[in-house]
Here is the input.
Amino acid sequence: MLKTIEWTGSAVRLLEQTRLPMETAYVEIHDEKQMWDAIKRLVVRGAPAIGVAAAFGVYLGIKDAHGAFDQRLNEVCDYLATSRPTAVNLFWAIERIRRVGAAAGSAEQRKARILDECLAMLEEDVRACRAIGEHGAALLASLRPRTSEPLNILTHCNAGACVAVKYGTALAPIYVGVEQGMQFHVFADETRPLLQGSRITAFELKENGVPVTVLCDNMAASLMSQKRLDAVIVGADRIASNGDTANKIGTMGVAILARHFGVPFFVAAPLSTIDFSIDSGAQIPIEQRDASEIASGFGRQTAPDGVGFYNPAFDVTPAEFIAGIITERGVVRAPYVAGLAALRG
Ligand code: MRU
Here is the structure.
C-alpha cells in the first residue's frame, strides 16, 4: 500500500493526493504553514489522515521555538485548527498534542514528547484501521454467509488507505476481507466535485488488486435498482453522539437511496471521529469550498460566468439511515446514543 503520511526524521512526507491517479508524487512538509496549505488544498485529506498530519504540523511549528514555548504552542495549534472545519479528527489530534505540550518540563523535553505523541498516533491509526477492517469483514461475511461469489459493495468518496496511515476505514473491511480469502467487487462513486472516488478509491483498489467499477454520482439509483448490492460502506468526518454522520457531499443521498432499495448502509470510522460534545448532526460545521471547484474544476470551465454556485464539502446523514457504525471496538447498532456512549469506556 502507498504510504500516505510518513515522518522522515526532519519533515513529513505526504502522498500528493491532488495529483492522483496520473502521478504518484510525494511532497515534503517542513513547517506549519506548508502543513496548513496541504490540508486546505487536500494534498492530504480524509479525517484520520488530516488529524495525524495536523499533529505533525504542530510539531514542525514548535520544534525550533526558543522561549515563550506555551504561547508558540497555542498559536500553532490555533492556526492549524483553521485549516478545515468539519472532520473532528483534526481538532481531536490538535487538542491531544496541545495537552501533551502543556505538561510540565523543559521546552526540549516537551518538544520530544510531542514528537513521540505524533509517532504514537501513526501507530494507533494503523491498529485502529486494522481492527475496523476485521470487524467490518466479519460483518460483510455475515451478509451472504454461504456464497463464494464476490460481494458487491458501493462506496462514496475515498475512505481507503489514502485517508489513513494504512487500510483506511470504509475500505479496511475490503482489504482485510481479501487477506482472509473473501472476494469483492467495489462500485466507486466518482464523487463530485473533486472526484475522490474515481481518482483515489479506484486507483488504490486497482493497485491492490480489488475489482472496481466507477460510476458517476447520479448513477447510484440506477445501479441499486439493477444490480444486487450487498452493502454500502462509507467513511465519516464527524459522527454526533446520536449517530448522525457527516461525510463527503452526496453521502446522504446514497443513504436515502440505499434505504429505498433495501441495501444496508454502513459507516466505518475510528472513535476519534465521534464528537461526543454534540448531540446531533445539526451542530456539525459544514465546510463551504470555493466555487472554482465546480465552475472550472480540473482546468476547464464547465458553467457560464456570472452564475451562483453551491459547494458544501460534506452533508449529514441522519442516523436513522445507518444500519451500523463499524469502529475499532466493534459494530454499533441503533440506538446509537447508548451504543456509542458504551464505546467510550
Ligand atoms: O474532502 P475530503 O476528501 O477530505 O473528504 C473525505 C471524506 O469525506 C471521507 O469520506 C472521510 O474523511 C472519511 S475518511 C476515513
In short: The first helix runs from residue 32 to 40. The mean pLDDT is 96. The first strand starts at residue 5 and ends at 7. The pocket of MRU is lined by residues 42, 45-48, 87, 157, 159, 163, 168-169, 196, 235-237, 247-248, 313 (CB under 6 Å).
